[in-house]
Amino acid sequence: MEKTATKTEKRGGSVLSGKSLAFIGGGAMAGAMIGGLLSSHAVEAKAITASDPHGDRMKDLESRFGVATTSDNLAAARDADIVVLSVKPQMLRFVFRDLCGKLRKDALVLSIIAGARIESMTQGLKQASVVRSIPAALRNSCRCSWKRKPSAR
């Protein structure tokens, strides 16, 4: 049987190829996004680390996807190219506490946190590159917004 090339293969690889990703929060949305990234071959499991305070969630992500997990947000995000914030809004202050000023300066932060404003995230993390996305139907579309911080160039 002849293999048909995927859109990613035709373009010469994924834009995420060689990038490391950290998911801060390992709940349902993070699991869906990780599953989508892996099933589309956008990244390999070894490129993803997820942090979550719940051991059962970490074990689930490890067994389903083969990704690295930790209960330490900073350990997951410190060296990541892309940091996905996928926690409940009420947990954001703890993420700020753990990560404020500690991410790579060139890291992109992608937030899928409902109601979290870009301004509060750039200030709370002391990070210039923050994108906010509201996933609708994960396989079909999502809405994104961003704001360039004046000092980010």
Protein described:
Strand 2 (48-51), helix 3 and strand 3 (68-70) form a beta-alpha-beta unit. Helices cover 31% and strands 20% of the residues. It has a seven-stranded mixed beta sheet, with helices on both faces. It contains six helices and seven strands; from the N terminus they run αβαβαβαβαβαββ. By secondary structure, the chain is an alpha/beta fold.
Mean pLDDT: 86
How far from one another are the termini? 49 Å
The level of helicity is 25-40%
How many extended strands? 7
Give the strand line-up of the largest sheet: 3-2-1-4-5-6-7
Number of helices: 6
Structural topology:
Elements: H1 7-10, E1 21-24, H2 28-39, E2 48-51, H3 55-65, E3 68-70, H4 73-77, E4 82-85, H5 92-99, E5 108-111, H6 118-125, E6 130-135, E7 142-146
Parallel strand pairs: 1-2, 1-4, 2-3, 4-5, 5-6
Antiparallel strand pairs: 6-7
